[in-house]
From TrEMBL:
<dbReference type="Pfam" id="PF00903">
    <property type="entry name" value="Glyoxalase"/>
</dbReference>
<dbReference type="InterPro" id="IPR037523">
    <property type="entry name" value="VOC_core"/>
</dbReference>
<feature type="domain" description="VOC">
    <location>
        <begin position="1"/>
        <end position="125"/>
    </location>
</feature>
<protein>
    <submittedName>
        <fullName>VOC family protein</fullName>
    </submittedName>
</protein>
<dbReference type="InterPro" id="IPR004360">
    <property type="entry name" value="Glyas_Fos-R_dOase_dom"/>
</dbReference>
<dbReference type="InterPro" id="IPR029068">
    <property type="entry name" value="Glyas_Bleomycin-R_OHBP_Dase"/>
</dbReference>
């Protein structure tokens, strides 16, 4: 349904490093970067995604947040790796890995706050 989503961050270089680290366990990497010169203005950004398709963008400007974004994880181990990477990269704990049965019995998620207070989640819907 949604092709891509983006948000503005207050410290673009720091956010790029943070998201590169926390999205790697989920199979996402920087796949497209644009400069202010390329966009004809002041916006610079980077798009993350799988296999060359940028689906999640961060860029320069006044911070958008706080917002909540949930990334689909292939396994519960990937959720745990996302959370560990997020904390190691300077994110703040907003809910450690675990089952959130109030959503559904197999909802396994973890939540990390980025430097702008955005609630970034990884979620796996299987039992593995």
């Amino acid at each position: 349904m949604i092709d891509h989503v983006g948000l503005k961050v207050s410290d673009f270089p720091k956010a790029k490093e943070f998201y590169t680290k926390i999205l790697a366990p989920l199979g996402y990497a920087p796949v497209k970067e644009v400069t202010a010169e390329m966009t004809g203005g002041t916006y610079a950004g980077v798009g993350f995604g799988p296999a060359g398709k940028p689906e999640f963008w961060i860029g320069t400007g006044a911070a958008t947040g706080p917002i909540h974004v949930a990334f689909l994880a292939p396994t519960r181990a990937a959720v745990e790796a996302f959370y560990a990477a997020g904390i190691a990269a300077g994110g703040k704990d907003h809910g450690p890995p675990g089952v959130r049965a109030h959503y559904h019995p197999n909802y396994f998620g973890a939540f990390v706050l980025d430097a702008d207070g955005n609630n970034i989640e990884a979620v796996c819907h299987s039992t593995a």
